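Backbone shape codes:
***
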Amino acid sequence: MSQYNLFGRKPLQYADISEISCTACGWCAKFCPMECILQRADGFYTVDEPQCIGCGKCKKNCFWDAIEMIRRTHEEASR
């Protein structure tokens, strides 16, 4: 896994969608520039962590506050 992505170095955070709070509306996926928010077979959404650049657009646009930004350790970000 490279420590770089399309927009430069990997950030020290990534998005995590709460299965409890998510309503499966799909609004978060519409704002993801990396298209790394994927719909699961059960209709809910998940984040492809290695592709997430940590921009926070999904979190800012989630009506239900179902997305949390998780800090990566420096070691995780440099992989």
Observations:
- The helical segments are 27-31, 57-61, 74-77.
- The two ends are 6 Å apart (CA to CA).
- DSSP finds three helices and six strands in the chain.
